[in-house]
User: Fold this.
Amino acid sequence: MARGHAGKVAVITGGAAGIGQAYAKRLAEEGVRIVVADIADGEATAGIVRAAGGEALAVKCDVSQPEDVAKLGAAVKSRFGRCDILVNNAGVYPMRPFDEMTFSEWRHVFAVNLDSMFLVTKEFLPGMKERKWGRIVNIASNTFATGPLHIVHYVASKGGVVGFTRALAGEVAPFGVTVNAIAPGLTRSQGTMVTNPRPEERWALVANNQAIKRPELPEDLVGTMSFLTSDDCAFITGQTLYVDGGWVRS
Assistant:
């Protein structure tokens, strides 16, 4: 078990499926009580946590909307009293050539991928600062370094995540709160199966760029999450850790 996890409360946005669900399962196995915040039904993830003997709460929430985030905060306070660990995982990954991209599409991607981090962090950070302990992990993407085609809005939003992480870390460090980011590669999950045309071909191309020549799975990311949210990470902050099989390695 990771040091410092037992009895903590984690809010995981976008935790209803895929990578978010894998994060929830791993943290729950280490004694963390889980809140699944997702615009989709999070009961499947909550059920996995409960079946393993853990505590879980699923809250239907559009994390890009201030009113929904306020309700999320109230639900967490009512059930658990606090949030110790915040995993800003919610995101969308639409593909569209820049010439065809509309401003509303651009704004939607930024609202879900970046604005939500502002809103949810603002909701739970005051309590972390008051208790002098907190772990915030933001999910970025290795696309910020690789610049693939047809997702300019996504790459730009994830660049914002890296900047948000670096800048916030300095402000909250005196309060015992760390802020780090995980930058996965293209991960084989429910979401990427739907959003990627010809996914098997795409994963083969991605794997060819990696040092480790196989598709990335949600399970490849959970150990990093466990570490970054533990007491062992007390002296690491403002960092973006690429977990992508060695694609970005220079």
